[in-house]
Amino acid sequence: MVSLREAGIDPNCWYGVARSTELGDRPLAVELWGRSVVIYRQNDGAIAAMDDCCPHRFVKLSDGVVVDGAIECPYHGWQFNGDGGYKTIPYLAPNQRLPSCRIPTYPVREQDGFIWLYPVANVDPDTLPPPMPIPEWDHLNYIASVATVDCPGHFSFLIENLMDMYHGHLHDDNQAWANPR
Ligand code: FES
Asked: How far is the centre of ligand 1, averaged over its atoms, from the C-alpha of 50 (Å)?
């Protein structure tokens, strides 16, 4: 039997990795369970997600730019489409073919003001259940916020702590957002 405190992360679910407003014209680097992923917005507004690693010399694509819906590596200017395939290699002669390899891609969705990533490569997104809805996010009756909590502990401790409203005692009742009873 495995202790809850030793349980690993199950990658088979959607993770909110950014707010929609955080993704502008430039690529955005995302670190999720040891994976480096780059996300960027394509011409039609849809988001693409792929390994943050150029297959040429392993440079981070998130340091590059978005050019006409493709992501361009900062080193030699190779460009990749949202499906991970090559769009162009700028110095190839007309009689040279593009390589056939592809960068691993990830399902990504935009929902309720957040960007959701499914950190399993090359999965058909149509076979997945949708991310958990958060309709409260934009609802006037709710006050919602995003906070990054970075602490060296097992995630199960953090979940318990945040669900334990009665621990206000620890904070000497200095909780502006709640009055636990
Ligand atoms: S390292 Fe990316 S194009 Fe060369």
From this structure: 15
- Predicted TM-score (pTM) of the model is 0.86
Q: How many residues does the chain have?
A: 181
The pLDDT, as a whole number, for residue 180 is 53
SS3 49: strand
Q: Which atom of ligand 1 is nearest to the CA of 89?
A: 3
* Ligand 1 and 73: CB distance under 6 A: yes
Q: In whole angstroms, what is the distance from residue 69 CA to residue 60 CA?
A: 18
Question: How many helices (H) and strands (E) would you count in the chain?
Answer: 1, 10
The residue to which tokens 């009665």 are assigned = 166
10-residue mean pLDDT profile of the chain (181 residues): values are 76 92 96 93 97 97 98 98 96 92 96 94 92 87 82 86 82 64 56
3-state SS assignment for residue 27:
coil
Structural domains in the chain plus CATH codes: 13-124+131-171 (2.102.10.10)
Does residue 118's CB lie within 6 angstroms of at least one atom of ligand 1?
A: no
